[in-house]
């Protein structure tokens, strides 16, 4: 099987995302968000295509991708769990909650479960500081996390 | 008659199960054949009562909370549609002391209206400020904002009108209004609440800024951690565009103005204005040296007003009710109202908008009701991760820019995190350094290297290694960071560290047994 058709297909998908946003002022972040939306991460193979389209060096594009915490260099698991590590959540026992989640999921921060069910990511503030400790599962907020909610989260990501 | 039921769609309410409550209510409405309209309003900001469901009755709104999905059938049995009594009854929400004691100017509509209904917005006084501005000369708009005494609510407290004047006076073919919605400080959520609960007030404020300065394009740089706010803002911009509030002409004015919502990408430092501008331009969010000021050379090198969400959202009331009306609230040089966000380990957490001048103690003890755990308050951090930790001894400090500065603190974006007596201040000081190390943009050495050295040195203190020598080193390092950093990230990280050291020295004394106990 040749790799050629796949990479052509990849290039076409990447190019269509890039083309959608390239007309904006300062298009790079919207393009990277678009690529992550399309592929689940920002594939390294897209860097030269972006660089050529925006008339930037590959190093500049790489520099931008790696500057921001959001952009992943590898695909995430089926679920993405962001756990708040900031002060307001700490004041309500956020550290203990994070430790329990780590234990229950069997992975650390920035790691993806072996069965690809979930990626665990730290986040600094979700703006739910009056209902701490907080987390976000696939974009949906969860507040006042306790043992019961940890069970629900674990059940959800394993389902 | 159709009954209107309000269930907040605010992220904080969603985090506490508002969507499940909404589903349960929809099911009951159908099952009971009730003629009801469900509105997903913003939050009133009483988070210990969220999800707070309200019903519009002949005698006004009646609230219930905190409601969980399993309470819904019994609420309908108790006659929720007519405001019937139930164990979760809160009565008229406006009479709940936490709300009754507030002065809601910026947040006047938040939690009351349907966030994306422009009709609702106008029915509650919206667009009056913009309509006034359309009839005024740009310099007069700027003067009115200057006279109101409004200062940047993002934390720096720079007079908003002066910024606008610089942009107005700088000639250019293209000017920009940039709204800083990169609300990354822990304990702050006022930007999120207003964008989710009353997005048109921000759009109106930005349009007024456009008319005042000659800027035709606005960007809202909104952090990616707020997906719901991004969705609401995008929807509201589309509504505003189709209603002629935004577009080629602002409500019939000769000038046009349009807004685009841009998502951040998880970098805390992009809340710093010059870093934000670089990020909007598609670059690494590295801080720029000032001068040149963004007002003269900002986004893409063009004159740019860059203001915080709350600053811009406070402009419509100034243009509606007048500069004097707004300025008459407050104390000293801190004029108007400030949405204080009470968060962390606190019984009554939420948003409390009030004129400047309330003492910290009143906010924590009387309004916040002390800690959620019921233990004594040990410390409060005011102003986010770069704000100082204050002990109870400083609770007489009035909430005012200058008064906080006098006590080596800052009000920042007006978020307060409450900690009970289980807090370890050495750990919190270490966290401040660690956070700075994670989030530093890397441009200047004191911040980039200093923060990492700070973590290491505080770890040595924790392990009891030459504590006096190492604490002296930490103080010296903080001095270097404070005076040698380009922006507030490196420059203000010393605030939490030094205040923890100053006010809670007992937490920094070595505990030799701690290691052995591991």
From TrEMBL, chain A:
Annotated binding of [2Fe-2S] cluster, by residue: 84, 89, 125, 129
Alphabetic keyword roster: 2Fe-2S, Iron, Iron-sulfur, Metal-binding
Entry GO MF terms: 2 iron, 2 sulfur cluster binding; metal ion binding; oxidoreductase activity
Record has Lyase as a keyword: no
Co-factor requirement: [2Fe-2S] cluster
InterPro entries: NADP_DH_HndA-like, NuoE-like, NuoE_N, Thioredoxin-like_sf
Cofactor: binding details: Binds 1 [2Fe-2S] cluster.
PANTHER family recorded: BIFURCATING [FEFE] HYDROGENASE GAMMA SUBUNIT, NADH-QUINONE OXIDOREDUCTASE, E SUBUNIT
Family: Belongs to the complex I 24 kDa subunit family.
Name the UniProt record assigns to this protein: Formate dehydrogenase gamma subunit
TrEMBL record, chain B:
SMART domains per the UniProt record, alphabetical: NADH_4Fe-4S
InterPro entries: NADH-UbQ_OxRdtase_51kDa_CS, Nuo51_FMN-bd, Nuo51_FMN-bd_sf, Nuop51_4Fe4S-bd, Nuop51_4Fe4S-bd_sf, Thioredoxin-like_sf
GO terms, molecular function: 4 iron, 4 sulfur cluster binding; FMN binding; metal ion binding; NADH dehydrogenase (ubiquinone) activity
Segments passing through the bilayer: none
Family membership: Belongs to the complex I 51 kDa subunit family.
Cofactor: [4Fe-4S] cluster; FMN
Coiled-coil annotated residue ranges, if any: none
Function: NDH-1 shuttles electrons from NADH, via FMN and iron-sulfur (Fe-S) centers, to quinones in the respiratory chain. The immediate electron acceptor for the enzyme in this species is believed to be ubiquinone. Couples the redox reaction to proton translocation (for every two electrons transferred, four hydrogen ions are translocated across the cytoplasmic membrane), and thus conserves the redox energy in a proton gradient.
Pfam families on file: Complex1_51K, NADH_4Fe-4S
Record protein name field: Formate dehydrogenase beta subunit
Keywords, ordered alphabetically: 4Fe-4S, Iron, Iron-sulfur, Metal-binding
Organism domain of life: Bacteria
Domain NADH-ubiquinone oxidoreductase 51kDa subunit iron-sulphur binding: 426-471
């Amino acid at each position: 099987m040749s790799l050629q058709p796949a990479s052509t297909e990849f290039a076409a998908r990447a190019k269509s995302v890039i083309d959608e946003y390239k007309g904006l002022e300062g298009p790079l972040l919207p393009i990277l968000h678009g690529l992550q939306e399309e592929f689940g991460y920002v594939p390294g193979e897209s860097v030269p295509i972006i660089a050529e389209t925006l008339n930037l060096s590959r190093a500049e594009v790489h520099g931008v991708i790696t500057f921001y915490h959001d952009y992943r260099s590898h695909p995430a698991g089926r679920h993405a769990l962001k756990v708040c590590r900031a002060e307001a959540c700490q004041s309500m026992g956020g550290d203990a909650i994070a430790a329990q989640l780590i234990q229950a999921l069997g992975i650390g921060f920035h790691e993806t479960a072996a069965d690809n069910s979930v990626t665990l990511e730290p986040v600094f503030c979700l703006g739910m500081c009056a209902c701490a400790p907080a987390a976000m599962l696939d974009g949906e907020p969860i507040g006042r996390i306790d043992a019961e909610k940890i069970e629900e989260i674990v059940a959800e990501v394993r389902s | 008659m159709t009954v209107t039921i309000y269930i907040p769609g605010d992220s904080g309410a969603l985090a506490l199960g508002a969507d499940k409550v909404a589903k349960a209510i929809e099911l009951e409405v159908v099952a009971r054949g009730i003629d009801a309209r469900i509105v997903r309003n913003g939050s009133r900001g009483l988070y210990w009562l969220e999800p707070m469901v309200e019903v519009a009755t002949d005698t006004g709104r009646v609230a219930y909370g905190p409601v969980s999905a399993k309470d819904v059938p019994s609420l309908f049995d108790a006659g929720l549609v007519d405001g019937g009594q139930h164990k979760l009854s809160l009565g008229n929400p406006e009479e709940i002391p936490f709300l009754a004691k507030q002065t809601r100017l910026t947040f006047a509509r938040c939690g009351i209206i349907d966030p994306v209904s422009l009709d609702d917005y106008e029915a509650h006084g919206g667009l009056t400020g913009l309509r006034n501005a359309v009839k005024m000369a740009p310099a007069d708009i700027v003067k009115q904002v200057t006279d109101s005494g409004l200062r940047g609510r993002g934390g720096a407290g720079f007079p908003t009108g002066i910024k606008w004047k610089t942009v107005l006076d700088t000639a250019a073919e293209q000017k920009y209004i940039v709204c800083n919605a990169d609300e990354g400080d822990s304990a702050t959520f006022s930007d999120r609440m207003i964008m989710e609960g009353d997005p048109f007030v921000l759009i109106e404020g930005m349009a007024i800024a456009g008319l005042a300065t000659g800027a035709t394009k606005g960007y809202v740089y909104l952090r990616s951690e707020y997906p719901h706010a991004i969705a609401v803002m995008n929807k509201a911009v589309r509504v505003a565009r189709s209603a002629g509030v935004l577009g080629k002409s602002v409500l019939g004015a000769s000038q046009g103005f349009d807004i685009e919502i841009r998502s951040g990408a998880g970098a805390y430092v992009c809340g710093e204005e010059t870093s934000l501008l670089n990020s909007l331009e598609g670059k690494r969010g590295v801080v720029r040296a000032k001068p040149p000021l963004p007002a003269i050379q900002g986004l893409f090198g063009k004159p740019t007003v860059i203001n915080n969400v709350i600053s811009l959202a406070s402009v419509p009331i100034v243009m509606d009710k007048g500069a004097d009306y707004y300025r008459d609230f407050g104390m000293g040089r801190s004029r108007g109202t400030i949405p204080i966000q009470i968060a962390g380990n606190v019984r009554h957490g939420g948003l409390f908008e009030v004129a400047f001048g309330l003492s910290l103690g009143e906010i924590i003890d009387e309004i916040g009701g002390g800690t959620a755990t019921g233990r004594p308050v040990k410390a409060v951090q005011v102003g986010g991760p770069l704000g100082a930790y204050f002990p109870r001894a400083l609770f007489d400090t009035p909430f005012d820019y200058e008064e906080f500065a006098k006590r080596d603190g800052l009000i920042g974006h007006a978020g307060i995190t409450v900690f009970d007596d289980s807090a370890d201040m050495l750990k919190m000081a270490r966290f401040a350094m660690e956070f700075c190390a994670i989030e530093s943009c890397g441009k200047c050495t004191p911040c980039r290297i200093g923060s990492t050295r700070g973590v290491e040195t505080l770890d040595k203190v924790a392990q009891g290694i030459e504590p006096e020598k190492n604490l002296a080193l930490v103080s010296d390092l903080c001095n270097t960071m404070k005076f040698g950093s380009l922006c507030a990230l490196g420059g203000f990280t010393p605030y939490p560290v030094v205040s923890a050291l100053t006010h809670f020295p007992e937490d920094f004394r070595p505990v030799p047994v701690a290691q052995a106990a591991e």
